[in-house]
Design a protein that fits this description.
Elements lengths: L2 H9 L8 H14 L2 E4 L5 E5 L13 E7 L4 E7 L5 E6 L4 H4 L3 E5 L3 E6 L14 E2 L4 H7 L5 E4 L4 E4 L2 E4 L2 H16 L6 E7 L9 H8 L3 E5 L2 E2 L18 E6 L7 H13 L4 E5 L5 H5 L6 E6 L1 E2 L7 E4 H23 L2
Parallel strand pairs: 3-12, 3-13, 13-17, 14-18, 15-16
Antiparallel strand pairs: 1-2, 2-12, 4-5, 4-9, 6-7, 6-9, 7-8, 10-11, 11-19, 15-17
Bound molecules: zinc ion.
Length: about 350
């Protein structure tokens, strides 16, 4: 795996609606391996890698869309009180017990570091929590203002052996796999649209217009798969970290296209790529599947433990398996469509 790329992707901030930093990394990498790269008005970055020997499907070159969402769960400054403590709102799904005792970075006119003061109590709400920066109200108001976004400070590192830890592996593992697959793919007979989408964590807001403009024949979201984890009943979890990429059969928003799911599983069998069948939470695939006249869609992705926490875990072998599956699928997607 490409450790340097994963670190870069995992360290770039990208709260929903404010993904400029991570999107500039995506743009830079895609510019090297695509024929065209553009950014739309909502902030999606769309790289097009054209078919070398174009196949035909419904009278045109077939289009494969990959979508990995670039945003991460974070916060936004709501109010600075008289004592200099900061009230904040969540940007994406954030639980109070996750936020407490975390170090944060406020992205204002100046960057300000702070901590979310633990409050304890089972009924603590995010609304009750405050950020302490050690600065007074007057000092803060020179540096930040309501509407500035806040990210957790956690970095990306190896926990041990092949297990990595990061604050935003949902979905920077997806971003990593997307960019790494595009760097490694050979010739294709379909046009591949590599989309780094925005605002997934607040309701798939980027993927919807992205899919509308791309008009894909097949859409695959790249996200985390549900992983066996501490505190969770085994019956609720299907994927084992280190045992391969997850292929989504179903999630709360999408029923994977059955023939596509089967084709992806068969492709893994043929090329000895480790995979697991996953029952997931909900991804950009829903927005793609339901765009225009409907699209053949599902999701794949490495198992990620503790999504929406600041200590998300992912196994290097599963990232490699995801990249391998994406590469093989790009190179054979025309044969899948020929039988559709
Ligand atoms: Zn996600």
């Amino acid at each position: 795996m490409n450790k340097e790329l994963l670190r870069r992707i995992g360290m770039a901030p990208g709260v929903p609606g404010f993904e400029t930093a991570i999107q500039s990394v995506a743009t830079e990498i895609l510019t090297d391996c695509c024929n065209e790269v553009r950014t739309d008005h909502i902030g999606n970055v769309i790289g097009l890698r054209k078919a070398k020997k174009p196949a035909q499907y419904n009278g045109r070159t077939p289009r494969l869309m990959f979508a990995a969402h670039a945003d991460e769960v974070g916060m936004m400054v709501k109010h600075i009180n008289a004592k200099g403590y900061i009230h904040f709102i969540q940007m994406g799904g954030l639980a109070p017990h996750v936020a407490q005792s975390q170090r944060v970075v406020i992205h204002g006119k100046e960057t300000v570091r702070g901590v979310i003061v633990p409050k304890g109590g089972d009924d603590t709400k995010l609304n009750d929590l405050l950020i302490d920066t050690g600065l007074s109200k007057e000092e803060l108001e020179k540096r930040i203002r309501p509407g500035d976004v806040i990210t957790f400070e956690n970095d990306v590192s190896v926990l041990n052996d092949k297990m990595w830890v990061g604050r935003n592996f949902d979905n920077r593992i997806g971003t990593y796999c997307l960019l790494e697959a595009m760097r490694n793919v050979g010739e294709t007979q379909v046009d591949v649209y590599a989309c780094s989408t925005v605002q997934e964590e607040v309701g798939l807001r980027g993927a919807r217009p992205c899919s509308f403009s791309v008009e894909p024949d097949i859409g695959i979201a790249i996200d985390g798969s549900m992983a066996r984890a501490a505190y969770v009943d085994d019956k609720d979890n299907l994927c084992e970290p280190g045992q391969g990429t997850g292929i989504y059969v179903i999630d709360k928003l999408t029923i994977g296209h059955p023939r596509l799911v089967q084709y992806l599983c068969d492709l893994c069998e043929t090329h000895k790529i480790a995979y697991q069948r996953n029952i997931g939470g909900g991804t950009d695939a829903a927005a793609i599947q339901q765009s225009r006249g409907s699209v053949i869609a599902t999701t794949i992705g490495a198992p990620v433990r503790y999504m929406h926490s600041t200590v998300q875990l992912c196994h290097a072998d599963d990232m490699d398996a995801t990249v391998a599956l994406m590469v093989k699928f790009m190179e054979t997607a025309h044969t899948f469509l020929a039988n559709s």
